[in-house]
């Protein structure tokens, strides 16, 4: 924010950039795709869903709605802060790199701006400490990303894959998968290799988004799965439109990018043919996977949420208090769970 005050970007240009996106320059589309993956991060969709279960609430219609409402407020606040930070970063970068008073070295940095050169943008406020504090900020952001990825991996292993591992082994496995590949690339390719890895990994995250987003949209829009907590028709329509746009952007970039790679490569015709067959087969499998998720029908109801339906409440009252809490909760192990409550807590 302090740097934004010093850079003084044109407010009209900032607002126009927010609502009229433009892709200029070589590789701008790929960077936009990677930014999408880095902002949304498909594994965090699983993590956010699991964190709602950590609230100490009665398993009732009112309790579950209350937990979802408070977590929506928390998530909205966090995402708004992240949005403001990104607006500040991009606005400062644009204002400084378009300034006529830049020296020759900073002009060269702006021509190919990456994480190795971006610290000079903070020089107006931080002076010679800009590179050191920028490095600390990168370390903090890396820790945050690794922690969320590790937690999400643990929830997926327990709740979806049903992998029964000892806590120390599960923690070591998830942390190793999060850290070791990046460490190897950084040691081999140096800081420039690490910067390229960030972009490539973010693009892969964007391509993975449909496989987390489509089930989430289908589950939350399904009366069979969600019961009384199903999304409204208007909310379902808006989320499906946004999800479809994200999938269309990814598919468009994947196909056009691969075609450009084939057309501009210097390989022999035979190699291009084999590479094209292999690549388009992979794209076909990718599209088939998305189509399967979209068209697959929800047939089984979620037993925990089904208990909040009126007919299930009556059955629960008849069977007694223990039937609710006899359900397995091993997918959210080590998290605070609601205390046992009587049938009166059910609405």
From TrEMBL:
<dbReference type="GO" id="GO:0005384">
    <property type="term" value="F:manganese ion transmembrane transporter activity"/>
</dbReference>
<keyword id="KW-0472">Membrane</keyword>
<keyword id="KW-1133">Transmembrane helix</keyword>
<protein>
    <recommendedName>
        <fullName>Metal transporter Nramp6</fullName>
    </recommendedName>
</protein>
<feature type="transmembrane region" description="Helical">
    <location>
        <begin position="31"/>
        <end position="54"/>
    </location>
</feature>
<feature type="transmembrane region" description="Helical">
    <location>
        <begin position="133"/>
        <end position="152"/>
    </location>
</feature>
<feature type="transmembrane region" description="Helical">
    <location>
        <begin position="197"/>
        <end position="217"/>
    </location>
</feature>
<comment type="similarity">
    <text>Belongs to the NRAMP (TC 2.A.55) family.</text>
</comment>
<keyword id="KW-0812">Transmembrane</keyword>
<dbReference type="Pfam" id="PF01566">
    <property type="entry name" value="Nramp"/>
</dbReference>
<feature type="transmembrane region" description="Helical">
    <location>
        <begin position="173"/>
        <end position="191"/>
    </location>
</feature>
<feature type="transmembrane region" description="Helical">
    <location>
        <begin position="269"/>
        <end position="295"/>
    </location>
</feature>
<dbReference type="GO" id="GO:0015086">
    <property type="term" value="F:cadmium ion transmembrane transporter activity"/>
</dbReference>
<feature type="transmembrane region" description="Helical">
    <location>
        <begin position="75"/>
        <end position="96"/>
    </location>
</feature>
<dbReference type="GO" id="GO:0034755">
    <property type="term" value="P:iron ion transmembrane transport"/>
</dbReference>
<dbReference type="GO" id="GO:0005886">
    <property type="term" value="C:plasma membrane"/>
</dbReference>
<feature type="transmembrane region" description="Helical">
    <location>
        <begin position="238"/>
        <end position="263"/>
    </location>
</feature>
<dbReference type="InterPro" id="IPR001046">
    <property type="entry name" value="NRAMP_fam"/>
</dbReference>
């Amino acid at each position: 924010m302090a740097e934004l005050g010093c850079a003084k970007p044109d407010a009209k240009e900032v607002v126009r950039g927010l609502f009229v996106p433009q892709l200029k320059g070589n590789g701008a589309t790929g960077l936009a795709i990677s930014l999408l993956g880095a902002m949304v991060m498909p594994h965090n969709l699983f993590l956010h869903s699991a964190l709602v279960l950590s609230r100490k609430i009665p398993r009732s219609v009112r309790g579950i709605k209350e937990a979802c409402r408070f977590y929506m407020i928390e998530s909205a606040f966090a995402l708004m802060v992240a949005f403001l930070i990104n607006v500040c970063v991009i606005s400062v970068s644009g204002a400084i790199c378009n300034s006529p008073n830049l020296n020759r070295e900073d002009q060269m940095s702006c021509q190919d701006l990456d994480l190795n050169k971006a610290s000079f943008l903070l020089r107006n406020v931080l002076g010679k400490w800009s590179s050191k504090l920028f490095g600390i900020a990168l370390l903090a952001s890396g820790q945050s990303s690794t922690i969320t990825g590790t937690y999400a991996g643990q929830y997926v292993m327990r709740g979806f894959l049903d992998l029964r591992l000892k806590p120390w082994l599960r923690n070591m496995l998830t942390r190793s998968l999060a850290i070791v590949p990046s460490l190897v690339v950084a040691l081999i390719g140096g800081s420039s290799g690490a910067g390229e890895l960030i972009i490539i990994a973010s693009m892969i995250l964007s391509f993975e988004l449909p496989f987390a987003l489509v089930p989430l949209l289908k589950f939350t829009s399904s009366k069979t799965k969600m019961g009384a907590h199903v999304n409204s028709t208007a909310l379902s329509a808006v989320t499906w439109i946004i999800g479809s746009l994200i999938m269309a952007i990814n598919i468009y970039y994947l196909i056009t990018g691969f075609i450009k790679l084939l057309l501009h490569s210097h390989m022999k015709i035979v190699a291009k043919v084999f590479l094209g067959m292999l690549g388009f087969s992979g794209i076909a499998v990718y599209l088939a996977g998305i189509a399967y998720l979209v068209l697959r029908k929800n047939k089984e109801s979620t037993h925990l949420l089904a208990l909040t339906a009126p007919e299930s409440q009556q059955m629960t009252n008849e069977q007694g208090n223990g039937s609710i809490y006899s359900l397995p909760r091993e997918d959210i192990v080590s998290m605070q769970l609601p205390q046992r409550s009587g049938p009166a807590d059910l609405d």
